[in-house]
Structures are given as C-alpha cells and as structure tokens.
Amino acid sequence: MKSHVPWPLLIAPLMLCPVLVGCGAGSTAPVTSPGSGPAPAPVGGPPAGKYGCLLLTYTYPDGYPTPTYVPSALGTVMIGPGNGYSASSFPDSGTYTFDAAKSWITFRGGPLDRVNASFDRLKDGVPILRFGEGLADPAPDVSIGESVCQGGAERLPGTTTS
After folding, report:
1. Which of 22, 28, 109, 151 has minimal Cβ neighbours within 10 Å of its Cβ?
2. Do residues 149 and 128 lie in contact, with contact meaning Cβ atoms separated by under 8 Å?
3. What is the pLDDT of residue 52?
4. CB contact at 8 A, 98 and 42
C-alpha cells in the first residue's frame, strides 16, 4: 500500500536540492535531438534546464517513520530546448513529449524510454518533475518511493524560462 504525504510536509526539503545533489553539476551543453535545432519548450510544459532529483523515503530518527528526501538514482535530469533530455546517471539521451491535458511528460528513447513523469510548479513557480516509485507512473499525490526533481535557477545556454 502506498503512503501519501501531504504537500506542505514535502515542499521545504526540495529547497535543499542544490546542497544534497548538486543541482547544476555536470555538463552545460544543451540537450537536443540528433539533427534538430533548438526549439522552444512545449507551451505550458517544463522549461529547459537542470532538474536535481531527490527520492522521498522514510527515515527512523527516533524509531518513528519520518518522510525524508535523499539523493535519487536519477541524479540530475536535463530537459533540453529541442525536446531532448538526458540524465546524469545514465550514458544515453532521448526525447520527450508533453501532454498538457495530463500535465505529463513521456520520455522516448534513451534510459527513460516509455517512462512518464508529471510536471507541476511549486507555489513560488519553481518547476518540478515527479517520477513514480521504480519509474512507474506517478501517483496523483506525492508518495513515498517517488523521485521529485526540482528545476534550479541555472538554465541551459540559450534557453528561457516559461
């Protein structure tokens, strides 16, 4: 049974993303599909940039389960201006499509082939991607076992925020 955690309990730890996983570490080269030039991000979709990923799990500091974010195996997901993506923990890259009706990204090719992630923004406008437990589809609410990837202030060269 999945455990759902209210959003207010989960937002503050996301601000630690740069400290915990080094958001912005790695290559600064734009991610694009082979043969494609830079294209604008899909309307309403995720802005191009780096998204540092954390895994929501439990720790037991006093013998009681406490929801906690720890570094995710995804590392940093980079969304490119030409609908391309890469993930720092994997050697390959691919493309993505954005479904505005569902607010979902579907990755094609590369290490996240056929994986869906939800796209949302925090109250302050910071973009986030949510990957379900074990890269399954994300639950309607943030759940234990999900990877939450927060877009940082650092953007890829030649991109703008949306």
Report:
1. 28
2. yes
3. 96
4. yes
